[in-house]
Design a protein that fits this description.
The protein has about 300 residues and is of the alpha/beta class. Helix content is about 45%, strand content about 15%. The protein has a single domain, classed as TIM Barrel, CATH 3.20.20.330. It contains twelve helices and twelve strands. Helix 8 links the parallel strand 4 and strand 5. It is globular and about 45 Å long. The chain binds zinc ion. Zinc ion binds next to loops.
Length: about 300
């Protein structure tokens, strides 16, 4: 494990995070609808191979394969009683691949439903579920917790609170998925503006905040969004993980067209806007991240 605390390193230089995991698992034979987290135990060589491909592409931060790792998400696969085991394995596999110069981000995705009053799950129930997941990720060797692809700031805040309750000194990252709702305006699916989303996450104690994924955003949109995130972040560090361009559908398949070169140009523009962690989301592969990490290291 890298002995330098992540936030210390970020004060010195920008860092590169990794890219998409799901598509890489499918490329290695994961069946559609199957639980990719089981591969942390059953096929750790495949999961570790994906992590290593990103690490070898120059990514400093490796994200655990635990997006759907809360009990609410795992219960869809009948695995709600294996939260600790599967998340611990996810962190161990990532830890081994990250090596002594990389940092591991313990990944926490949305729990898959709405909190009260729209849904049935209370903040306390969710906090308890996230806590079990996060404790296992930290036990397995995660250096920071990444609460990602959030739409509801209330859910993001529960994630931050759960992480801070597990280990007060572990940095917490929150990323939201935004869509463009008007020229110059970005909101989450729940209608929260970029500035408000950032403010809520940093107010809860997240040290790093930003955007990943997003609905139909162009690479130019991510750069414009980044400016708004940086303006709202204050002393917090900003992370942006764009998709490989805005997707198109062909024969029922979602296709992302952005080339590694285009992603590298975008990475440079994001850095110029004040972003300190660059990574990739849907449609990005190790070759995209190799070009992007090169841009980050040249900054
Ligand atoms: Zn995505």
């Amino acid at each position: 494990m890298n002995p330098i605390p992540l936030l210390d390193e970020l004060s010195r230089r920008p860092l590169c995070c990794d890219g998409a995991m799901g598509t890489q698992l499918f490329a290695r034979g994961l069946a559609s609808g199957a639980c990719g987290m089981l591969w942390n135990l059953d096929r750790p060589g495949d999961v570790g191979g994906i992590h290593l491909a990103y690490r070898n592409a120059g990514c400093d931060l490796i994200t655990t394969n635990s997006f759907g790792g809360s009990r609410f998400a795992l219960q869809l696969h009948g695995l709600a009683d294996r939260v600790a085991e599967l998340n611990r394995a996810a962190a161990r596999v990532a830890r081994a691949a990250a090596g002594d110069k990389g940092w591991v981000l313990g990944d926490v995705g949305p729990f898959g439903d709405f909190l009260e009053p729209i849904g049935d799950i209370t903040a306390d129930e969710l906090r308890e579920a996230f806590s079990v997941q996060i404790a296992a990720l930290l036990e397995g060797g995660a250096n920071a917790i990444l609460v990602e692809t959030m739409s509801d700031p209330a859910e993001a805040i529960v994630g931050v609170e759960a992480a801070k309750a597990c280990a007060a000194t572990v940095p917490v990252i929150v990323t939201y998925a935004f869509q463009k709702t008007a020229p110059g305006e970005f909101r989450t699916m729940m209608g929260t503006s970029a500035a408000e989303a950032v403010r809520r996450a940093t107010g809860a104690g997240a040290e790093i905040v930003g955007a990943n994924c997003g609905t139909a955003l162009s690479l130019d949109d991510y750069v414009e969004l980044a400016g708004q995130l940086v303006a709202a972040a204050g002393n917090a560090t900003v992370i942006v993980q764009p998709n490989a361009g805005s997707p198109r559908t062909e024969n029922g398949k979602t296709i992302y067209d952005a080339t590694p070169e285009e992603m590298a140009v975008t990475a440079k523009r994001l850095l110029a806007a004040g972003v300190r962690i660059i990574g990739g989301c849907c449609g990005t592969k190790p070759n995209h991240l190799a070009a992007m990490s090169h841009a980050v290291k040249a900054a």
